[in-house]
Write a structure and sequence with these properties.
This protein is α/β, with parallel strands linked by helices. 35% of the residues lie in helices and 22% in strands. The protein contains 3 helices and 7 strands. The strands form 2 sheets. The protein has a 5-stranded mixed β-sheet. Strands 1-2 form a two-stranded parallel ribbon. A hairpin with a 2-residue loop joins β6 and β7. The termini are far apart.
Length: 179
């Protein structure tokens, strides 16, 4: 059977998508998710419900593009609300600094220097907060796993697509979640 629904078989024991994700999130990340949920629940969903009702009142729904589009959009918003509600219940908010701020733990801003002397600034955050533009990486990422528990001036070797890369930790900073 050929078609767009066919996927490549992956061994579940080796598939990285099957690995359990951590349920950690920073306080500001949880607040952002709550804000998105609130906006979807209070603003977006009622507006789409009104549009669907108005489009349905126009008559024949089978040829009504407004009705079809807004109904699909409403279903997408409802699914997102359901997902965010469930996800926020599962998450553990990390709202305090670690006992040893001299080592890399969840929420740390870390500056790394590679073998060529180039610096890279990253932050270890939860799976729901990753942002490549800010260089916030998931605590479940291979680089983050290699960094966890390491101290200043430690060397870390990480397997990358181009081969192994070695970094030196040059700075570890934490932002106080209470501030």
């Amino acid at each position: 059977m050929k078609g767009r629904n066919m996927t490549r078989w992956r061994d579940p024991a080796k598939d990285p998508r099957q690995e359990p994700k951590s349920n950690l999130i920073t306080a500001e990340g949880a607040e952002r998710l709550r804000g998105i949920l609130d906006h979807l629940s209070r603003v977006k969903r009622p507006a789409l419900s009104t549009k669907v009702g108005e489009a349905a009142a126009l008559g024949d729904r089978s040829e009504n593009a407004d009705y079809t589009y807004n109904k699909k959009e409403l279903n997408r918003v409802i699914a997102r609300i359901r997902y965010l509600t469930k996800r926020l219940d599962e998450l553990t908010v990390v709202d305090r600094l670690p006992a040893d701020t001299g080592k890399v733990f969840f929420g740390a801003f870390v500056t790394l220097e590679d073998e060529a002397g180039e610096e890279m600034h990253i932050r270890l955050v939860g799976h729901d907060e990753t942002d490549t533009t800010k260089r916030w990486i998931s605590v479940d990422a291979p680089l983050a796993k290699a960094l966890l528990g390491r101290a200043l001036e430690d060397e870390v070797t990480v397997a990358a697509p181009g081969g192994e890369t070695t970094y030196v930790i040059t700075e570890i900073v934490y932002r106080d979640p209470q501030a």
